[in-house]
Specification:
Number of strands: 0
Largest sheet: none
Number of helices: 13
Shape: globular
Strand content: under 5%
Distance between the termini: 26 Å
Order of helices and strands: HHHHHHHHHHHHH
Structural class: mainly alpha
Length: 261
């Protein structure tokens, strides 16, 4: 539903939305894998929160481009609400599954790097982003403080084993540098390798001039690159990229059909 709405709202492409939803439903790891929606709740719920945050992030980008030089950025009610939603969703995602929930912030920051216009607008709204960081960190700080008071030794052990050691030492597929790309292109059924590859090239070619595709490309690629740098690699770590990849496939498929007609 969210991928369909994304295509409909931001690309005015209901056909692309249909194909993106179908593509996402065909993602084997996401639907029927051990951490997919049929067998688990934590990873799918974090995916829902991260997707909502990235939706809000794109709305923020649109507001930036439509209001480049506001005299008082913090006084704009809609922008305040969007930043509030973004921060709350990221905070909830972090509480759901540790630092992995902060991926939307990294994706949004990556987009600002490749879009100077949005970066300048974000700089003018530094107070709003300070609030976003506070919203994301306050519930986490409260949770950590509670755990340190109630279960200090267990919490420190779990943090070291499940976050630090998992990232730096690695438990799974640590020697497989291209693990995620092999899973996406060869083992998952989010799309055939040719279609998925062409869809990414299609979005990349349009990203030069179209900020919508630029944002979508960051959403699709940055989490994969980020988690590829960690020593422990499992396919559900990159679930956050799946909606963007599905939208890319949907847009590419719709473009092919429209050109054929």
């Amino acid at each position: 539903v969210l991928t369909y709405l994304y295509c409909l709202r931001y690309f005015s492409a209901p056909l692309a939305g249909f194909f993106s939803a179908v593509t996402l439903c065909g993602a084997r790891h996401l639907i029927s894998g051990p951490h997919g929606v049929r067998h688990a709740t934590q990873d799918p719920f974090m995916l829902l929160l991260c997707t909502g945050a990235l939706f809000a992030g794109f709305e923020i980008v649109k507001s930036y481009r439509g209001n480049q030089s506001p005299s008082e950025p913090a006084s704009l009610p809609r922008e305040r609400k969007l930043h509030l939603i973004f921060g709350l969703l990221v905070g909830a995602a972090i509480l759901t599954k540790s630092v992995a929930g902060a991926v939307p912030c990294i994706v949004f920051g990556s987009y600002l790097i490749v879009d100077p216009q949005a970066r300048r607008a974000a700089t003018k709204r530094w107070r709003l982003w300070f609030g976003v960081i506070a919203l994301g960190l306050v519930p986490v700080v409260l949770f950590v403080a509670y755990q340190l008071l109630m279960n200090r030794e267990l919490f420190l052990w779990a943090t070291r084993a499940e976050i630090v050691d998992r990232a730096l030492t690695g438990f799974h597929n640590g020697s497989r540098g291209f693990y995620y790309w092999r899973e996406l292109f060869l083992r998952d059924t989010i799309a055939t390798p040719i279609v998925l590859g062409l869809a990414l090239l299609f979005i990349a070619s349009r990203a030069i001039k179209d900020y919508r595709c630029r944002y979508l490309l960051c959403w699709a690629i940055v989490p994969i690159v980020l988690f590829s740098a960690a020593r422990s690699r499992m396919v559900w770590y990159i679930f956050v990229s799946y909606p963007a990849l599905a939208v890319a496939v949907g847009l590419f498929t719709a473009e092919l059909l429209q050109r054929k007609d």
